[in-house]
Design brief:
This protein is 61% helix and 5% strand. By secondary structure, the chain is mostly helical. The protein folds into two domains: 12-264, Orthogonal Bundle (Fic-like fold); 278-327, Arc Repressor Mutant, subunit A (Orthogonal Bundle), CATH 1.10.10. The strands form two sheets. It has a two-stranded antiparallel sheet with strand order 1-2.
Amino acid sequence: MRNQKPPFEITNQMIDYVAEIAELVGKLSAVSSLSANPTLRRSNRIRTIHGSLAIEQNALSLEQVTAVLNGKHVLAPPKDIAEVKNAYEIYERLDELDPYSVEDLLTAHGIMTRGLVEESGIFRTRPVGVVDNEEHVLHFGTLPQYVPDLVMELLDWAKTSEVHMLIRSCVFHYELELIHPFADGNGRVGRLWHTLLLSKWNSAFAWLPVESIIHDRQQEYYEAINTSNDAGEPTLFIEFMLSAIKASLVEVINTSRGMSDGKMDKVTLRWNKIQEYLKTHDYIMNADVRELCGVSAATANRILTNLATKNKIKKYHENGHWIYRID
């Protein structure tokens, strides 16, 4: 059994991020139309669900996730469609959940994995090796007989700790993944609970698409987990998550400003998303634009062609694919 307090150090980088995020939350309150704009809230929630599930290999595009949640028929594996519906249901019930309740954690897992896994809504009963998206074993989860006590200890720490909630929620997210309490769905529940904890600090976090930013930086996400596992404490993971939270706030503030000024049209919004993506990727392709903007392949092609015509991006042919870069 482990000590009650998870092992981690608070670094200057974390303190800087916390200060920047707190300032951005203040700006968000000043400019955001989130509270008054159900369309923007729903759009962000759909991006959240798409991002969190895509990290776990769900094949549905943002456009398809939107269609499923609008009740339209989508040609896709039934499992992927069920994951979307389940995730949407539990995110819609976020404000009903107690972030320090083991019963609510199990309820959330039960809804998230309903009809998809054998051990749904219960702690796992078998040992498990934790693998990344390339099937590399990251670590072996806690032995099943210790899982319930460790999860309750972690929830209790999250409730009573005096560490700032921005850092505390990151530590919780990491430690839950380390314990790996469920047979399946640990990543989805961990990201949901991170959002839940943040939403108790500031309600705007219930609608911020942090999961979408994590999906855009998925390789970094896994590297941060791996490096933290090797170090035996989650410093790098906390710093990565704080940077993702900051990025999601910046994006929402920019979008809100544009909407409130009435100046930011659809073209500008899409260009902003593409620019953000290209800050962390060498190039962008049609499929990436489809996901980012929730559009069809034909529309994605039009967007890229228009940007290339205006010399905002350059088009290249590599390995049989058309790719686009900012020179």
